[in-house]
Amino acid sequence: MALRTEELMLNMGPQHPSTHGVLRMVVTLDGENVVDVQPDIGYLHSSVEKMMENRTYLQNIALVDRGMDYLSAMANEEVWVLACERLGKIEVPERARYIRTIMLELQRISSHLIWLGTFGIDLGAFTAFLWAMRERERIMDLFESATGGRLHHVYFRIGGVFEDLPEGWTDRCEEFCDYFLDRLPEYDELLTGNPIFLARTQGVGVLPLDTAIAMGASGPVARASGLAYDVRKAHPYEVYERVEFDIPVRSEGDCYARYLVRLEEMRQSVRIIRQCLERLPAGEIRSKVAVTLRLPKGEVYARTESPRGDLGIYLVSDGADRPYRVKIRAPAFSNLYALTEMMRGWKVADVIAILGSIDIVLSDVDR
Amino acid sequence: MPTEPQYVPRSQVLPLDKALEVIDALPGGGVILTKVEEVLNWGRAASIWPLTFGLACCAIEMMQAYATRFDMDRMGIIPRATPRQADCIIVAGRATIKIAPIVRRLWEQMPEPKYVISMGSCATCGGPFYYDNYSILKGIDQVIPVDVYVPGCPPRPEALIEGFLKLQDKIKKEPFLRRRIARAAAAATQA
Amino acid sequence: MSWALAEKLKAAFPDVELFPRAGTEPAGTRDQGPGTGSGEQVTAAPESTPAAPRRPAHEVPPQYLTPGVYVPREKLLPVCTTLAGDPEFGLTYLSFVSAVDWPDRNELEVLYHLYSHQTRQELALKVRIPRDDAHIPSVSGVWDGANWHEREAYDLLGITFDGHPNLRRIMMTDDWVGHPLRKDYVYQDPPWLVEVAKERQKDAEGLGLGERV
Ligand code: SF4
């Protein structure tokens, strides 16, 4: 007689130390094996799209910081001002474009550092968290001295940036680049070659390339599956076409590949920052744009590469001083959808590792 | 029919409330009680264990406060992953209407005495998400009582630490043994 | 961004209609606005043609900087299957599904944004449906990723996607009333929240920190 087995429903979250916020997952288990995972989202739905319809174009900069992906506030500002500038045909001075690029890349590093730290915690390496936060504090200092904010900067403006860099900032930024490149090998020692880390990530949670595309995955998740696509290269904005950098792509599609891709991205970010600092031109930082800006009637889709992937905004303007409709295309939303596919067939302990590896931010998923 | 074993509440096995009442009534007992209270409060204030529960952006600053530079461990603040072991909940970030019942339930699951820190303008009053909004709770104090409000968007880690110091002050002044006596007396008169 | 894909689609499906472009406007309105000079293949790049005196905002024709087409509702599925399956288009990546609400026209514009990783072309699709009969075939069979996006559009804008495998609310709670992103939505506190808040109010007023004895 065959042993009768039952499937078990396991509810993870919304309060769970490793769901990275308020995600709830309903995991169906057969013994130790994951049969199905249904993420339940919406616990942080902040109605940003509705609020943006009621705020002027300038006020919205402060809103996208908070309402969208809060780990990369600069990237949100960037996509918003980019959409407005495209629709309004507003020029951005050269210096501002360089400053923006530097800030975006710093933000990418800081966002990846948070990911690295929390991923480390998920896998039991608390040291990684402490180290990553130590590095991140340095970036926070840089941000704070330039923009006044640690997490939410409200620094970009339509047609430029708010203020010029303070004195000595570029030197400090240069210093940080050196410091950071010094530290990166430490992470290699701590995690990359660590047998426990390898056992828990290598070959785990594989996402095949065609599934990744069909599900709309983007960013490091898709690049780890072999999709050589980065908005910075495909549709360059700011000064990305003028700097040299590589797009790390791996074909394995497992957690380890996603880890390696992000680690390499941080190196490339430092490379971009250094080139920008070298060429940073003098001059204006903001073109004249009215506070009560009215964009012409029309529609535009702007996209950028946020630390999580292909971040886009579809902006519909009806000629008033506030947008008629804004649709935010959130990368983490689609990446999270691909989670079910990644988890099927793995053990329950791998659920945490896989979830950690796709780097979701719930406020990006829910908006 | 076999009789079921009688469940005896612990407070009847060890009538602590009664003992406290007796001590309080003794000449000089009040002083002892106050001293004991002080010692206990000192211990409680120096080991606040908050629940790891992040909601939104403020949670990132909370993480920073636990981490390297600010290191809240040195004040005995150690995050716990389950509400059963925690005695403080930091509501870090905006709470949606969808999550509000869950916050409430987490708070109910914590053992007494328990404290709530509302971190950030969102948790305090809705903050930047007050107007034109259909999904955010306008202040977590609509659902659970709050002890310390930490303003800011986001509050810096230093501000959160200040909030904890305020909470420590509050705990140190709390006459919680006397409250126990009063509660027991009230229950006795009601019975 | 080029409109080549949109024109190709127009050739294959004569029912679809291109977004109005600055170059192809009726003669009366083309005296001004960026991109009028080139006639065809208008790009998003700003042009330095000396602008005619500015007209009031409501008269300026809208500019669509993202190439796209209007698709009739019945034709959506065949069009999408072609776009995704035909290597000539190769639009295998669906960025998002959403909608724009136009109450004065009593119309919802369901919006799809497609992208091809090979040719790096993008295309927006719009389907106009009446507000009170918001039905549209689901494209989750064509692009798997549409699943959640359609659930979101159903939740926030009240569009029913026929043939969707699991059309439930995704952002709001299951018992939520109304579809918040519609322009005429009015927010109301859910009844349980009103009750709890009232209780808390009483505690706070009457007993100081009421629950803490
Ligand atoms: S107070 Fe500010 S930082 Fe905190 S959750 Fe609200 S928006 Fe985010």
Automatic annotation (TrEMBL), chain A:
Its EC number is 7.1.1.-. It comes from the Bacteria. It is a peripheral membrane protein. One of its GO terms (molecular function) is quinone binding. The keyword Transferase does not apply. It is found in: Cell membrane. GO terms for cellular component: plasma membrane. The chain crosses the membrane at residues 113-133. Residues 122-288, 291-367 form the NADH-quinone oxidoreductase subunit D domain. It catalyses: a quinone + NADH + 5 H(+)(in) = a quinol + NAD(+) + 4 H(+)(out). Keywords: Cell membrane, Membrane, NAD, Oxidoreductase, Quinone, Translocase, Transmembrane, Transmembrane helix, Transport, Ubiquinone. NDH-1 shuttles electrons from NADH, via FMN and iron-sulfur (Fe-S) centers, to quinones in the respiratory chain. The immediate electron acceptor for the enzyme in this species is believed to be ubiquinone. Couples the redox reaction to proton translocation (for every two electrons transferred, four hydrogen ions are translocated across the cytoplasmic membrane), and thus conserves the redox energy in a proton gradient. Belongs to the complex I 49 kDa subunit family. NDH-1 is composed of 14 different subunits. Subunits NuoB, C, D, E, F, and G constitute the peripheral sector of the complex. This is NADH-quinone oxidoreductase subunit D. It comes from Candidatus Segetimicrobium genomatis. The gene is nuoD.
UniProtKB/TrEMBL annotation, chain C:
Residues 20-63 are annotated as: Disordered. One of its GO terms (cellular component) is plasma membrane. It catalyses: a quinone + NADH + 5 H(+)(in) = a quinol + NAD(+) + 4 H(+)(out). It comes from the Bacteria. Keywords: Cell membrane, Membrane, NAD, Quinone, Translocase, Transport, Ubiquinone. It is an enzyme of class 7 (translocase). NDH-1 is composed of 14 different subunits. Subunits NuoB, C, D, E, F, and G constitute the peripheral sector of the complex. Belongs to the complex I 30 kDa subunit family. NDH-1 shuttles electrons from NADH, via FMN and iron-sulfur (Fe-S) centers, to quinones in the respiratory chain. The immediate electron acceptor for the enzyme in this species is believed to be ubiquinone. Couples the redox reaction to proton translocation (for every two electrons transferred, four hydrogen ions are translocated across the cytoplasmic membrane), and thus conserves the redox energy in a proton gradient. This is NADH-quinone oxidoreductase subunit C. It comes from Candidatus Segetimicrobium genomatis. The lineage of its organism: Bacteria, Bacillati, Candidatus Sysuimicrobiota, Candidatus Sysuimicrobiia, Candidatus Sysuimicrobiales.
